[in-house]
Design brief:
- Keywords: Membrane, Transmembrane, Transmembrane helix.
- By secondary structure, the chain is mainly α.
């Protein structure tokens, strides 16, 4: 992925920032899907706070 961004002229820090933002978006997406599968946001919040 990094080499592809470099090929199109992205600077190293720019490329790393974009890769990090894609990873963050993917993580948030997976967390949202997990919350839905676990029975909603309230249950997910309880799990995160350790009140499970």
């Amino acid at each position: 992925m990094y080499s592809q961004l470099r090929h199109y002229g992205w600077r190293p820090l720019e490329a790393v920032g974009h890769i990090a933002s894609w990873i963050a978006l993917l993580t948030v997406g997976l967390a949202c899907a997990g919350a839905e599968l676990l029975g909603g946001w309230e249950q997910a919040g309880r799990l995160l706070m350790g009140l499970g």
